[in-house]
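During the no-cost extension, the postdoctoral fellow (Dr. R.K.) reprocessed legacy sequence entries with the updated structure-token encoder. One reprocessed record is reproduced below for audit purposes.
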Amino acid sequence: MTDAANNKVNVWDKNGTFVKSWGEEGNGDGEFSIPTGIATMGNKTVIVGDINSSPTFARIQKFTLSGDYEETIQPESGGFYPRALAVNDALGKIYVCNANSYILIVDTF
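Re-encoded structure tokens follow.
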């Protein structure tokens, strides 16, 4: 789950036991500034929405299941605030619920 206050992703097991966390505050690869939505893509990757309190820097980052950074989706236009994420693996799509009351559909990375 995302921890927006501490700019991290926290991992818990099925029994509710804390396993680990990753991430730190910043705007670089693998860093967060207000991480929001999170979803898994199949059994391979995790995607995290990061609103960064500015549409200029808001983005979605892709990580391995162990938390290693892979890549970023960052639209060129402003007004992007990814609040919640969902994935349809069969169609290869990421659905982004945006804070500006619309849903974006993104081809997977």
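The CA atoms of residues 51 and 71 lie 16 Å apart. DSSP finds no helices and ten strands in the chain. The remaining legacy entries will be reprocessed before the final report is submitted.
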